[in-house]
Fold these 2 entries.
Entry 1:
Amino acid sequence: MFLPIVLIIFSLALLTAGAEGLVRGSASIALRAGLTPLVIGLTVVAFGTSSPELVVSLKASLAGLGDLAVGNVVGSNIFNIGIILGITALVCPVPARLQIIKIDAPVMVIAAIALPLLLMGGILGRVEGGILLVGLIAYIIFNVRLARRETSAAIADEFAEGLPRQSRHWLWDITYVGGGLALLVVGSNLLVDNCIMIARAAGLSEAVIGLTIVAAGTSMPELATSVVAAFRKEPDIAIGNIVGSNIFNILGILGVSSLVAPITVTNIQTTDYLVMIGISILLVPVLWSGLRVRRLEGVLLLACYFSYLYVLWPKA
């Protein structure tokens, strides 16, 4: 049991390094292509930071492990709001922009509600995957157009500061992207295989492992980034990253995974979907109250997550 745990920790390090390399190389290529930092931040960087979840769910889907693929997404969405945003707010109250409250957060709630509806038959097929991807493309197009039209110079500068710099040569970009993808593939294989080994040895279901260990592990890069930003008193884009990641997890990750290989789900419970929907809905009034997530509200989000764990774990 000790070796699989060590390999899981090692796999998470590989996933983190792979995501960093992919983002660095892709952002540099996008800069060379003439895309603005704002558009790159809303697309390339946002999707690159979710690449560990994408590769793990895709690997699980191809291996016929539907509970692990969907559990990773559902668990990550709950973890992102309950733990990442909760801890970030405890360190430093997190401001929210009106666009997130009026547009992005409602889209996140709609995506959370749509997932269990599409999975009512227990299968997320290619048709459902296509619907999710169409929704993601529409969301991206709308967001990019809105950002170009309404974003202030200060916000544009903020995105520019958060981007990796353009490398000295395009060969470095290819190296970063290729190396990042390789690390993501190796890391995802290690993570999925060893999580399954631990689950079987401990008598836990793949669903519980996906909802907890895998979900938390693939969200570690976002957690580290948000907490560091909060300690620096710069948590401005923390909510945007979390909400955007939750939208991409459902529309992008499960959309791509189910298009490649239809996903069969048997052990993800109604409770799991309801908690994901509930904590997504809860975030909306929390954001409306003063346009920020305060420390007390951070405690509330953390309490929601640990209450969910308390209910979930005995099911194993």
Entry 2:
Amino acid sequence: MRLLASALGLLLIATTAQANTINFGAPTNNSTCSQTGNSADRSCTNSASVNNGANDATASAAIIGQASADHGITTNPTAIADTTISYSIPYTVTRTWNTTTGPTPQLIIPNQTITLNLNLSGSVAKDNSQATGGLGQALLDVTSGNVSTGRFGSVSFGIDRSQTGGGGLAATNFNDTVPDITGTAGRNFDDFTGELDDEISLVAQLPLNYQDWEDKFPPNLSPTYNWNATPYSGTQSFTDTLTVTFRLRAESRPSGSVSVTGGEALACAGQTSPLGGFDLDNNAAVNCGSGFTITATVTQTGTTSELVPEPGTLMLIGSGLAGMVAFGARRRS
């Protein structure tokens, strides 16, 4: 028993060191790309990467992409690349609970705040200054529902930037931030079913109303535990999904009777065009920025404490619940 208590004590120390953690999972690519025109004259690409901090209290993700349309040719002067970049990134938040010893043992659970900071940077540019004219159009559109999660709803940057029409070289860089999209993970995320599932439980459910958390317990816990003699610890976690969506479009087309070749256009977020020599003719400095970046942090703001019933009381509760279930079954039969 002494060895068991020592092992559980070490587990308590190990898990308490990372009482509040957040981790991103593998992104799911939901992006689409529509291309028309000569294959050498248009391109759209995208990718996403995630990184979790060394202490797991901070996680980050970066989503990049571009749409580019280069000069058309006389047989097919129009080139269009229109991509909607969309990635779903699951993330898991974990907290460590522990108990104190008697004579009035308590279950202690951290209260948490989760913060999502969002940034979108890149450029839209077009060049119609080549000798034979042409039209280039570039568009960034994140005007609706570009970031959403089940717990925090959705937010939009409200950006609709474009460079359109004829008339030489034009480029617009952008760098937009929506800080502090917050929710408090300690505010008793309910599933509103009125049931006692998914709560911390040993012999019987303890009605702490943390119903969206999945409980994970240290090994060797059994109905014979003794709160007064041994501190216990375990973890709770929940998983949510963050979805990011934005659109990039580039179009190159001739300008009526003036030209049979198109212009150049590039809309980029964190990624330059893969088309060779795509410099918008006049070597325009196109800044593709860092793309769509997300920083997620989870911090402990305090703790919630609940008195823990003695094992005998829990056994009575468990027996009472079992009796109620059996009584209901007999009535139905």
